[in-house]
Amino acid sequence: MIKNDIRSALKQALENCYQQGTLSSGEYPAEIQLEVPKNPEHGDYASNLALMLARHEGTPPRQIAEVLVAALRANALFDTVDIAGPGFINFRLAAAYWSTVLHRIDAEQGAFGRSQVGSGIKVQVEFVSANPTGPLHIGHGRGAVVGDALASILAAAGFEVQREYYINDAGNQVQTLGRSILLRLRELQGEVVDFPEDGYQAAYITELAARLRQEQGELADLSEEEAISCCTRFGVEQILAWIDSDLRAFGIEFDNWYSEQSLYDRNMVEQELGRLKQKGLTYEEDQALWLRTTDFGDDKNRVLIKSDGSYTYFASDVAYHLEKFDRGFDRVIDVWGADHHGYIPRMKAMLKGFGLPAEALEVLLIQMVNLLRDGQPFVMGKRSGNFVTLREVIDEVGRDACRFFFLMRRCDSQLDFDLELAKQNSSDNPVYYVQYAHARICSINRNAAEVGMAPPSREEFDFSRLTLDDEIALIRQLSRFPEAVEGAALHYEPHRLVFYLQDLAALLHSYYNRHRVLDEDVRVTSARMYLVNAVRIVLANALSLLGVSAPEKM
RNA sequence: GCGCCAGUAGCUCAGCUGGAUAGAGCAACGGACUUCUAAUCCGUAGGCCGGGGGUUCGAAUCCCUCCUGGCGCGCCA
């Protein structure tokens, strides 16, 4: 990559200076920092190396920069190397490099942007994992898109990625689901029931009861316990089918659905807890079994087995996470609702106690989505049944707009989502802005085809016909796509690609309005087609990583 | 009380490992369609980066403190 080339050029220059005695400290910064200047007049890349060395050399940074630049000027990589401000070294890349960027995109097509930084690292992204007690709501949608896009981005960066959904099909919540269904079933049979406050009140419970009654009758010969268990099984199965179908409508498919109950069925909870005991990380007190998480940064110790002998939710979650590493993952990413943040220290403490590095588990917190309609907030709550489902939102505003919207902000900041606004202003929606850029290029291709023109091959492409600053600006942005993907992957920040896309689209629209691609001069037309088709490829690649479509016509 | 996240233009938000004159979209105002799709473009205006201290060549970014908003602090899941 170009950044590394510039770094090694700088390092080489530094070595030369030390050998020639023009610099004397012998200091080598751990990593030579390169940045993309905000102001394009400051060149394509800039380094603060001279500023970093100033203290060690005891010389003003600009003087150091001059010495370094003298050693760099001969390098064919650069058009110009300048000193600016307090001592920055600004690099402007030579034309030959820009030509290479277009060649690469043409050669790699859909693979352009992929890298190998994560090569050989197995990572699991666990996301959504909503309780199978009701349909997905809008908050789940945000976590779903972020997790899905992140998984795609990691894969593009060379990681080996698995998408997993953890099904909380053991414990109180699904029991409550079963009881709620059974009560509604009895109501359907004419019984008057006293529906408890902590039951699930929503209408879909009655739907499930009706369907159960149709398929399996009234469960009259079963004991209360058997009937509840039957209702639970039926409910979980049905609801998971809804969830899967909603996620598919959103463009999301999981590689693995992992059942909490299966941990118990395979005695995994007991086994993994046994390993913790063996390591001396647990103790008994008040007839309960505790995990010493305070030894590893938690603010209190946590119960694994309650005094009545039953496991806590934490116990199965501990087993689940340990088992992830048993399955060979080097790194595990959990996407959680931000309201679970208090849970992170105990989980990290557990893994640390087990001897795993802190980076082995990364928890991405997804902040709340405030759903609005005409500026009025919705109050959401599963039990009250007053919530807007993810499916309703997808149907209303469209999959692309919905996904893009969820990815537009850093996931740890809250998000206001106004349904009416998202629909009403759909033409102002940033997703259309980006997609339109792609459609415009496709349209140019169609018009060109009518007069028998097509984008040139690599051999036919004549870079010297691209003489405009706007053209170099476009190529510069294209050249940064691999860095953008890598940055988004290493920092777990999918939103970076959204901003990258908006910048690229803006440059394309601006270029389109100022200059004609299909020019009178055939040679210019040909070169410009090569350029805009590189833009088209990168737009499509970036959109694809976000799970948003790249339409050819709008 | 303790902890986590946030506080940047009127609104919604970017700002990568600390860097040069803090950016974009929307809203406002003024322009551009006989020209490849105006779902677009060009321009103007808009700021004590919540307040205050500190660290250094240099702070929106790091540290301390205070203020405001959200969310957590179960032998619940």
Low-pLDDT runs of 5+ residues are 380-386
Give the proportion of residues in helices.
40-55%
Strand content: 5-15%
CATH topology-level fold name of the largest domain? Rossmann fold
Q: Structural class given helices, strands, pairing?
A: alpha/beta
CATH superfamily of the largest domain: HUPs
Number of alpha- plus pi-helical segments: 20
List the helices and strands and how they pair.
Blueprint: H1 2-20, E1 34-35, E2 45-47, H2 49-57, H3 61-72, E3 78-84, E4 88-93, H4 95-108, E5 122-126, H5 138-156, E6 160-167, H6 172-188, H7 203-216, H8 224-249, E7 256-259, H9 260-265, H10 268-278, E8 282-285, E9 288-291, E10 302-305, H11 313-326, E11 331-337, H12 344-353, E12 361-366, E13 369-373, E14 376-377, H13 390-397, H14 399-407, E15 415-418, H15 419-424, H16 430-450, H17 469-479, H18 481-490, H19 495-514, H20 522-546
Parallel strand pairs: 5-6, 5-11, 6-7, 11-12, 13-15
Antiparallel strand pairs: 1-2, 2-4, 3-4, 8-9, 9-10, 13-14
Helix pairs in contact: 1-3, 2-3, 5-18, 6-7, 6-8, 7-8, 10-11, 13-14, 16-19, 16-20, 17-19, 17-20, 18-19, 19-20
The chain binds one RNA strand of 77 nucleotides through helix 2, strand 10, helix 11, helix 16 and helix 18.
